[in-house]
Amino acid sequence: MFLKWNKKNYSIFFCFILLFFSFLVNIFFFYQLFFSVEQNRVNINYSDNKKNEFSSNLLNQDLNINDSKLFPIYEITREDGIIEQYNLFLSKQLVKRIDNLKGIIFEYKKKPDDLLFRKIDKNNHIVTQYNDNGNKIKEIFYNQDESVINYIYEFNPDKDNDLIKCIYYFSEDLQKYFILEKNQDNENDAFFIKTTYFDNGLIDFILEYNDSNFIKKTFYNRKKPQTKKYIIEEIFSSEDNFFHPIKKTFFQLDGQSIKKIEEFNHIKQNKITTFYLKDGVTKKYIIEEIFSSEDNFFHPIKKTFFQLDGQSIKKIEEFNHIKQNKITTFYLKDGVTKKYIIEEIFSSEDNFFHPIKKTFFQLDGQSIKKIKKINKEKKVKTTIFFLKDGVTKKKVIQEFFSPENNHFLIKKIFFEINGKNIRKIKISNPRQNYKK
After folding, report:
1. How many domains, the chain?
2. Rounded distance, CA 199 to CA 403, Å?
3. Does residue 424 lie in a domain region?
4. pLDDT in 10s for each residue of the chain, 436 residues
5. CA–CA–CA angle 200, 204, 206 (5° rounding)
6. Which residues have a Cβ under 8 Å from the Cβ of 138 and sit 6 or more positions away?
7. For residue 398, is it within any domain?
8. What is the pTM for the complete model shown?
């Protein structure tokens, strides 16, 4: 029953032995090759200490710089000392090019072949990223121990080396920073149109530059993040080399509805403030003010109050800072027809406006119905009544008051139809039951 050996059987057995030993040799070869590659990878990194290695947690997590899970690779050291790493299975696929002399690592994509997508500059602590067109799209600058990002440059993906955005960090936790954005239509690389400041990762305020003479500042609510608080627009004056506000927009708590708008005219030195209802659209009232060089303060010259529709005028208050008087015009519901006018004068004794004249109009809003004049010094109030034409006097009532003896005298003058000739005069004192 024993197998009879012949030349054919010996040949088969011998081939089997050769194949087995060849398999063992291949395994040993692959093990040695892969182990040497891993050793080379370790030797490539700067191993002074963990902080000096480019494999910090921040870089690995955010930028994925060191890819330790690549397919097995083999290395070639060129005559100039540059190390090139290739994919083990695709011998023509370049993975990395390492220049230890300059401290630069170039990383390449697999498809398309030899496409540079990242450059690591260890000496200057800079990581540069490229797109599929070979254009530089981002530069990341780190601190000395490569643990914190200092700032980031972003470039136009359609145009190589065209800087469009800069991000600068203030803190190690990357919660405080500001972003500079460049105008892509401007050829000047140093000119930026927008700066956004962040605090605790939330927008603090934004600066926008229309041109070199205009700035727009948008401030956000700290108590209610990501909601606008107010906007200031400023323009540059060559007279004093200073930016002057031309418009301020204040928002309600929702950050969208307008609360009020302040508009400034640097030449006329006036200010117009428009207040809005809760809807942010309907006007409540408007205040016009003028600047006084005497006290460096804005003084109101006109206040316009609107009815509920936000269009029809309810009343207008006009102030004369020099004469220290105030004229208030009240309107009917149509917002056009005058109802009455009150003229007041300011008293420095009590810092208050006191009425000196009131003019009441008829239904047409033009013809005068009556006029009341008040003389505070003489303690006299005069009321003139007019006919429907608004010109012809109907009667005049004068009221005299004496605080010394509590004397209150009323004098009534009645005119003829022509409004000039006196028809009769009545004098009375209601407190003393006196009539004449």
Report:
1. 1
2. 67
3. yes
4. 444 555 556 566 667 677 776 766 666 555 554 444 444 333 333 333 333 333 343 343 333 333 434 456 778 888 888 898 887 665 567 888 999 989 999 998 866 667 888 999 998 999 999 988 888 999 999 988 888 899 999 998 888 788 889 999 988 778 889 998 887 665 554 567 889 999 888 899 999 987 668 899 999 998 888 899 999 999 988 888 888 899 999 999 999 999 999 999 988 889 999 999 999 999 999 999 998 888 888 889 999 999 999 999 999 999 988 888 999 999 999 999 999 999 999 888 888 888 899 999 999 999 999 999 988 888 888 899 999 999 998 888 888 877 665 566 777 877 777 777 777 777 776 655 555 5
5. 135
6. 128, 129, 152, 153, 154, 155
7. yes
8. 0.67
- What string of DSSP letters covers 153-216? EEE-TTSTT-EEEEEEESSTTS-SEEEEEE-TT---TT-EEEEEEEETTEEEEEEEEEETTEEE
Give the range of the structural domain holding residue 436, as residue numbers without chain letter: 367-436
Residue 362 in contact with residue 339, Cβ under 8 Å? Answer: no
- Distances from the Cα of 212 to the Cα of 163, 192, 237, 266, angstroms: 19, 10, 11, 18
Name the DSSP letter for residue 72. P
Residue with tokens 């207008």: 316
Cis before 225? omega within 30: no
Query: Does 401 fall in a domain?
Result: yes
CB 266 within 8 A of CB 235: yes
Dig out the tokens for 28 from the structure. 């040993």
Cα 288 to chain centroid, rounded: 26
Q: Which residue carries 């969208």 as its tokens?
A: 256
430 domain-assigned? yes
Q: H-helix or E-strand containing 347? A: strand 338-347
Please state, as a whole number, how many other Cβ atoms lie within 10 Å of the Cβ of residue 151. Answer: 16
Q: How many CB atoms lie within 10 A of CB 400?
A: 17
The SS3 assignment for 33 reads: helix
Q: Which of 130, 125, 132, 140 shows the shortest CA–CA distance to 53?
A: 125
H/E element, 204: strand 202-211
- Both structure tokens of 139: 């530069």
The label of the residue with tokens 């690592």 reads 105
